[in-house]
Amino acid sequence: MRAFLQRLPAFASVQDRLSPSKLVATYVASLMVFAVALAIRAWFDSVLPAGFPFLTFFPAVIICGFVFGLRQGILVAALSGLSAWYFFISPGRFDFSIGTLLAMSLYLFVVTTALGLTYLLTSAYRHEITAREEIQRLAEQQEVMAQELDHRLKNIFATINAIISLSLKNASSADELAARLRDRLTALGRSNLLLRGLRQGEDASLQAVIDQALEPFAIVGTSRFSSSGPRVPIGGQTVVVLSLILHELGTNAAKYGALSVSHGQVSLDWHIDTDTSAHQNLVLRWRETGGPPPLAPPPGSGGFGSTLMKRVIAGVRGQTEITYPASGAEVTLTLPVDMLNPMVKQV
What we know:
alpha+beta; rod-shaped; disordered C terminus
């Protein structure tokens, strides 16, 4: 039944507007239906008893309204009513007697009812199509969300596994291991809470990720920390990765660097850079000043923070550069801009 209705211009126009040529064709066809109804009514006029002036016009109105559309039905109804009035009720003139006006009122009532039912039918068809499209959209959205959830859970478990492995490697006691795991998993949880607060299609800004990652160190909004750079939207696993890296940089600064003394400062700036291959990269620089002179780790060794940064950033085609000038540790992260897109799978 639905396939049949879709082939009728009156119902096809509910989904897609008819082209001008098809629209003209519906009016031409409606006029032809009216002409046929008028010819048949005139042909049988001599054999029909009095009181049937609208006999062939009612079907014409219903057919045109149902097949071609409400406007076409109204056109045929008007032409049919005038023709019946002029040719068959009072031939050769428009009679305004009470009987004629009652007959025309009855005709008007019948065709209005018929066209009204046709309008209700097409409206129900329109609502049914809208409901089907909405159900389809919700089903597709649910599928996308399920895939995103599955992908995000895999990334979270992979990140937790890396945290545990690296923490075991660098911890000297069970208490130290527990403390490190607690802090790092808390940072992981905060980054996921930030993601959960985003509406569908939204991205977190880099500034928001920085603020939530460094919030435990009580430096955001103080003179000890400054940040600057354009608004950069990020999403998905990139939020988790950057949150962990920034949390680890803050932890190292609080233990050994600029945040371990009262007058130390940290600055963080970023910009978008275009390389020689016309690829855009996010360049993020962390600088510490005013703290104890940093000690570079022996070659081949590295703590959790440096290992995490090198592994994860390399996994998204990025680069990590860590230097230890006398003024304080400096870390430069370079990430391809296209890997910040939440729709792109992160490693």
